[in-house]
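stuck on this fold:
=====
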Amino acid sequence: MTNIILVGCGKMGGALLEGWRTNRAAEAFVVVEPMTGATDQLADASGVTVVADFESIPPAFSADAIVFAVKPQTMGVVVPPYAAMAQRAVTLSIAAGTPIRFFESLFGDEAAVVRAMPNTPAAIGRGISVLCANASTSDDQRQLSETLMQAAGVVDWIDDEDQMDAVTALSGSGPAYVFHLIEAMAAAGEALGLSSEMAAKSALETVAGAGELARLASDSPSVLRQNVTSPGGTTAAALAILMADDGQIALMKKAMTAARDRGRELAKG
């Protein structure tokens, strides 16, 4: 049997648990969550035991993975009691800005630790998670961690944890950039005379449809952009603004650099 302890059952933790149960990623789960509202729906769930704290975990429960899905600022209080369990189970953390060395300082260098950065589309199984493992993580533990994160969508790996801040800036924070793009397009449409309802709907469906087309198409986004841009046409006029030297690419680089730098600050505590 594969047994999982999930510490934290908020939006991300709850989405992961739902995916694990649906895909049968493990046979038994213990969910550690003090807020009863987050776990009310699990009261009668098969294979799921819900407890309020570490001390209430059944003594006989032997975990293969401990998944920390709590806020980064609470990790210093939440994590230490799991030190003994972490000697045989892989620790899988999805806490932004919490480096692998934080867990190694508490559990020892021989403990298997995998750091993951998912994003919010994980809630519908369409996210992307980037994982990084320490040297003590076995191939089986890497595979288990990958299987668990596949419940949230696509999984990729990096070998250099220093790249995790860039991953956070791109895919971790990226959904917010897309949501803001929808807001910006809707606001511009309204400024051009469309009703707020029509502008909002058109912006949302345009971004959703274009994203799905880009995902499914064999052509790159660059080629897709060129395919819908007639020389001298309306799209070309708009792209002349967006693709200027101080346009969208420059602005996105500036924004993502700020996100990366903030991630580095958080990692320092």
